[in-house]
Write a structure and sequence with these properties.
By secondary structure, the chain is α/β, with parallel strands linked by helices. It has a single domain, classed as Alpha/Beta hydrolase fold, catalytic domain (Rossmann fold). The chain is 41% helix and 12% strand. A seven-stranded mixed β-sheet has the order 1-3-2-4-5-6-7, sandwiched between helices. The longest helix is centred in the N-terminal third of the chain and has 27 residues. 44% of the residues are buried.
């Protein structure tokens, strides 16, 4: 007997979550089997709470869940030519301060923490760029009047199906648990090409462009990010709130054509409904985390917006617009 239509996607997504966990487990099992075959370990990377560099108008970069500011490293040299870049690690993540005692983890609590980071850095209003969870937080900062402009890459915060979103979060939690459990073998995992390809396949388009040392650091960071697990337990309860169009603060939304973490067809349109006036660009040749795949294109899409605002050019707010697809091969 066929299940109801609403049950079919949930069953499929839960199966997909289980398969993702099995893939991660298989990768770790293979690592144990081949651990005696020594290869040069990736260089050790120190843990720091934030990055600041460059000169110009302030530009803030916000990363996704479980990551650190280091995901932005591929684009930093390109952005620092025009901006004073500040890239903090989100509160409760590896190297950053934890949420204060008694504060319940939530997107709003993380946004509060980022505001405190900005104030300590002497930043009032800034151009804000966010990827994944960082995109959601960027929209919250814009709501609070802290943004001169906003550029989002595959932002979290909206969904068409609660069941699909819940299944995706389950898959994410399982993968984080498995990687955190084996964080002590991060260098051994990262030094092997097949392991990088297997574990990064949903995050980037070309795992070969990810520095093994950075990948090892990202695995260790998951273990030392206490906010991740409790945040994932509540993150599906409240989607991003409607953000009224503000001609003084343009919003550009960039979505990978093949985002395997937050697919546009299920999450992009609901988000755009909540951000009227946002400009939409679909980007080819990159994954959910586009910075290592195509740093030049990512930087250009940011600087187009920040440059226009700094020159006093304000886009007219209105319905979102589909731009021609950008392709790295062009």
């Amino acid at each position: 007997m066929k299940g109801r239509p609403s049950e079919i996607p949930l069953i499929w997504l839960l199966t997909r979550a289980a398969l993702l966990a099995l893939v991660c487990g298989a990768a770790i099992a293979l690592m144990r089997r081949f651990r005696r075959r020594r290869r040069p370990a990736p260089r050790a990377i120190p843990v720091t709470p934030s990055y600041a560099g460059g000169a110009g108008t302030p530009l803030v970069l916000l990363h996704g869940i479980g990551a650190t500011w280091r995901v932005w490293r591929p684009v930093l040299p390109l952005l620092e030519r025009r901006h004073a870049v500040f890239a903090p690690t989100l509160p409760g993540h590896c190297g950053a301060e934890r949420l204060a005692a008694g504060v319940v983890p939530s997107v709003h609590a993380l946004a509060d923490g980022v505001v405190e980071q900005l104030e300590r850095a002497g930043i009032d209003r800034a151009h804000i760029v966010g990827n994944s969870l960082g995109g959601w937080i960027a929209l919250e900062l814009a709501r609070r009047g802290r943004a001169r402009s906003v550029v989002l890459f595959g932002p979290a915060g909206a969904w068409r199906s609660a069941a699909r979103m819940t299944a995706g979060v389950i898959a994410l939690r399982l993968s984080f648990v498995l990687l955190a459990k084996h964080a002590g073998r991060a260098e051994a995992i990262a030094r092997r090409r097949w392991a990088r390809r297997l574990l990064l396949a949903t995050q980037v388009e070309d795992p070969e462009r990810v520095d093994p040392a950075e990948f090892a650091a990202s695995i260790r960071a998951i273990k030392d990010s206490p906010v991740v697990s409790p945040l994932l337990r509540v993150i599906t309860k409240h989607p991003v709130e409607h953000l009224p169009a503000d001609p003084a603060c343009p919003v550009r939304v960039v979505w990978a054509e093949r985002d395997r973490i937050i697919p546009f067809e299920h999450n992009g349109l609901p988000l755009l409904d909540r951000v009227p006036g946002a400009e939409l660009i679909r980007l080819a040749g990159v994954g959910h985390i586009p910075m290592p795949d195509d740093p030049e294109q990512v930087a250009r899409l940011i600087l187009e917006v920040t440059g226009a605002v700094d020159r006093g050019h304000r886009p007219i707010a209105g319905s979102y617009r589909m731009h021609p697809t950008f392709d790295r091969a062009r």
